[in-house]
Amino acid sequence: MKIKVGVIFGGKSVEHEVSIITAVQAMEFLNKDKYEVVPIYISKDGIWYTSPRLTSMEVFKDLENINLYAKEVCLIKKNNEFVLQKTKGLFKSVVNTIDVVIPIVHGKGVEDGSLAGYLETIGIPYAGPSMLGAAIGQDKVVQKQLLESAGIKVPAYVWFYDNEYITDENNIIKEIEKLHYPVIVKPARLGSSIGITFAKNKDELRSAIDEAITYDNKIVVEAVIENLQEIDCAVVGNHEFQETSLLGEFLTNNSFLTFEDKYIGEGSKKTKTGSKSSGKINTSGFKIPAKLDKKIEKEIIETSIKAFKLFNLTGVTRFDYLVDKKTKQVYLNEPNTIPGCLAFFFFKAKGKSYTELLDDMIATAIKDYKSEQKRITNFESNILATYNGSKGNKNKLN
């Protein structure tokens, strides 16, 4: 009997379309001899849909008419099974059942632990970052604070909330200018380089902060690393076992890795409104393996494993590094806990196919689930049985 794999994607996020691209590609590479693929799409207004047709990119060219192809559902536990149940109609019939989930979502509102928390609540095994790991991975400020506490170097930074900037703009700008221009301004809880701006002076800084605030109320400003080499390392596994990929270097003519660098690649075309994605993540700009000093390569691999465990991660994470080629200093910029393409091309370069990578993720999710089932999660006794309400309780709790 095939394992039913629910692939959840979309969501209320500015990275909605990127999630669709990643998920459709992953569903294509899942081993159909072992798995039955069950697409689960979350629309931009938070409605869940399922249909076999949601494995095709063509369906998503008109997002407003998804309801013509798919049924509205909710994912619940029912009769000891994980089911997709219809939400409309008099009879809430079961549309399908799921054995394991691969969450392929990007950005605030889904990748930040929100979806993982729901999956943990209903108890279904899932092949992705834990609720804690996902939350850490989405917040650029919290992750930097954790990395610093573990002795892992990060670029110098200043962070603040939008209300603090509104009431104390001059002092915040003074703190930022201690980093020295140029600086990079980022929404603290977004990905895919959305809302990120390179600022070379005070006027550009103010404009960059205004732009970032339109996406998030928490902002981080980072010092620019000189003589920059951008290196990526992916890790697959869990707390017990971690496998690292080959290291890759991203080659870009921009000041930082932009949304266009990542997603507007080969096969894209120009439209009246700008560039249009080809429906594939751009991997053409990566040089794999990266040309690095062996000592730096070793440091990046060891740091990636350390950070993977520190953040309580599972599934696949891509760690982005900034290397100063002159000083040989390595900085961990940030993790991407559900990376575009699930970073398969970093593993492909060392001989592991996308299909094999997905197999590893699913196997780990099922293994972790079975292990968790052996743990004590509640007690058979009911302490409320002798509770006497306002009259008090002779057996007081300490």
Write the layout of secondary structure elements.
Elements: E1 3-10, H1 16-29, E2 35-42, E3 48-50, E4 71-78, E5 81-86, E6 94-98, E7 100-104, H2 114-122, H3 131-138, H4 140-149, E8 157-161, H5 162-167, H6 169-177, E9 183-187, E10 197-199, H7 202-213, E11 218-223, E12 228-237, E13 242-244, E14 248-250, H8 259-263, E15 269-271, E16 274-276, E17 286-287, H9 294-310, E18 315-324, E19 329-336, H10 344-348, H11 354-373
Parallel strand pairs: 1-2, 1-7
Antiparallel strand pairs: 2-3, 3-4, 4-5, 5-6, 8-11, 9-10, 9-11, 12-13, 12-14, 12-18, 14-17, 15-16, 18-19
Helical content stands at: 25-40%
Helix segment count?
11
First and last CA, distance: 50 Å
The radius of gyration computed from the alpha-carbon positions, rounded to a whole number of angstroms, is 23 Å
CATH superfamily of the largest domain: ATP-grasp fold, B domain
pLDDT averaged over residues: 89
Strand order of the largest sheet: 6-5-4-3-2-1-7
Briefly, what CATH class of the largest domain?
Alpha Beta
Number of strands: 19
CATH topology of the largest domain: D-amino Acid Aminotransferase, Chain A, domain 1
Shape verdict: globular
Strand content: 25-35%
Query: How does CATH name the architecture of the largest domain?
Result: 2-Layer Sandwich
Number of domains: 3
Helical/strand content category: alpha+beta
For the largest beta-sheet, the strand count, sense and barrel status come to:
7 strands, mixed
Low-confidence stretches: 258-278
Q: What are the secondary-structure elements, in order, as H or E? A: EHEEEEEEHHHEHHEEHEEEEHEEEHEEHH
